[in-house]
Amino acid sequence: VDLAAGLAAGGPVWVDTDVHLAALGEQRWGAARGATRVLYLTVGTGIGGGLCIDGQLPTGAGHPEMGHLRIARPGADDFEGACPFHGACWEGLAASPALTARWGKSPHLLPDEHPAWRLQAQLLAVGIGNLAYAHGPDKVVLGGGICTRRGLRDAVRRELVAFFGDYRPHPAMVGDLEGWLVAPALGPRSGALGALAMAQDLAQA
Ligand SMILES: [Zn+2]
Fold it and tell me: What pLDDT shows up at residue 1?
């Protein structure tokens, strides 16, 4: 792509984060199609989060940094965390480098039955539960390399059921939350397709 030539030709320019555009892409064409409040989260080398409300992304300078939330951890846990800024913030506890630091090997080398995954589900559920209480999403799209682990999304849903108890902030949060917390449908193309959706919107504006 000849970006300089495109910019020189004029027209509107929108710059946004990969996770915001992924939220828009999933809302337009993916797993959150038709949802009015979409929370998109990706868990990999970090934790990134984006919100898409009524098909729109938040405007203005700055962006959310959901991965750096401070969350309560289950039980007695003195792991110092892996975030270079905060130590044991959410991504310092639950992104890939945190698992490597805590368990001494890359998470893809940890077998399904390893206790790391129960803790991982708990840590993800606490963060997602807090974000759900803050934003009331009718769809949460949970992706990223860590979440390709077999059974992890189901385990996160089970932990979320316990986290919410009888107080669920959106009527879409029914039963075991299978229709509320979902995998991305666009795979690694969520962000690029979100950028295309944004370009369409700008062209029509
Ligand atoms: Zn942090």
Answer: 67
pLDDT at 84: 97
Distance of CA 2 from the midpoint of ligand 1 (Å): 35
> DSSP letter at 47?
E
Percent with pLDDT over 90 in the chain: 83
Interval between CA 25 and ligand 1 midpoint (Å): 26
How far is ligand 1, taken at its centre, from the CA of residue 147, in Å?
Answer: 20
Q: How far is CA 67 from CA 29, 39, 82, 93, 117, in A?
A: 25, 13, 12, 10, 19
Average pLDDT over residues 131-148: 96
Going from the Cα of 19 to the center of ligand 1, the distance in angstroms, rounded, reads 17
- Helix (H, G, I), strand (E, B), or coil: what is residue 67? helix
Q: Counting beta carbons within 10 angstroms of the beta carbon of residue 62, is it exposed (0 to 12), middle (13 to 18) or buried (19 or more)?
A: exposed
Q: Nearest 10 degrees: CA dihedral of 151, 48, 93, 113? A: 10
Q: How far is the CA of 41 from the centre of ligand 1 (A)?
A: 15
User: How much is the pTM?
Assistant: 0.93
